[in-house]
Amino acid sequence: MTLLDHVVLQVDDLNAIGDWYDQIVSLAGGTRTFDMPNLIGYALPGQPAQLFFSLATDPGGRQTHVALRVEDEATVRLGHEFATAAGAEILHEPRLWPEYGPDYYAVFIRDPAGNNLELKCQASTGRPTLST
Predict the structure, then answer these.
(1) Where would I find the VOC domain in this sequence (predicted)?
(2) Cα–Cα distance, 111 to 5 (Å, whole number)
(3) How many domains would you assign to the chain?
(4) Distance CA 94, CA 12 (A)
(5) Distances, alpha carbon 4 to alpha carbons 14, 18, 70, 130, in Å
(6) 53 and 97 assigned to the same domain
(7) Are 88 and 109 in contact (CB under 8 A)?
(8) Are residues 120 and 77 part of one domain?
(9) Are 117 and 68 members of one domain?
(10) 5 by DSSP, 3-state: which?
(11) What is the full per-residue pLDDT of the chain (132 aa) written as tens digits?
(12) pLDDT at 16
């Protein structure tokens, strides 16, 4: 399993820097596969549409976003419990994110330095399992 799932760097102007990153990311074998007004993303050819590197503009601040891939839904919830106990700001509670994929399950946490940390997994059944 891979520890790092994806990274999103914050930039001032996507249009100004997007072409530059298109060239740089192509050196690593990536191509632009996702293009929205506030986000462009890159993936590896022949891979699912999973983004591994993105650029975004965030009018709410200049946070870096890092997503760590974890084993399962229980681990996502464990990360949420740890962050809550440690007093971290929870940006988004653990849940399915169908806009990112049918089995995309994640929690979004503000780390102590102010960055947006995501713990994510592929849900085992398209819905998270329940804790017992």
Answers:
(1) 3-122
(2) 17
(3) 2
(4) 29
(5) 23, 22, 9, 25
(6) no
(7) yes
(8) yes
(9) yes
(10) strand
(11) 567 778 888 888 888 888 888 887 887 788 898 888 888 988 877 766 566 788 888 766 667 888 888 989 999 999 999 999 999 999 999 999 998 889 999 999 988 778 888 999 999 865 544 443
(12) 82
The CA R_g of the chain, rounded to the nearest whole Å, is 15
Q: For residue 32, give both structure tokens.
A: 């632009």
CB 127 within 8 A of CB 96: yes
> Locate tokens 């509670």: which residue?
93
Query: In the structure encoding, which two tokens stand for residue 116, read together?
Result: 């947006």
The pLDDT score that the predictor gives to residue 43 is 85
Output the CA–CA distances (angstroms, integers) from residue 18 to 66, 95, 101, in the order listed: 19, 31, 24
Q: What is the pLDDT of residue 85?
A: 94
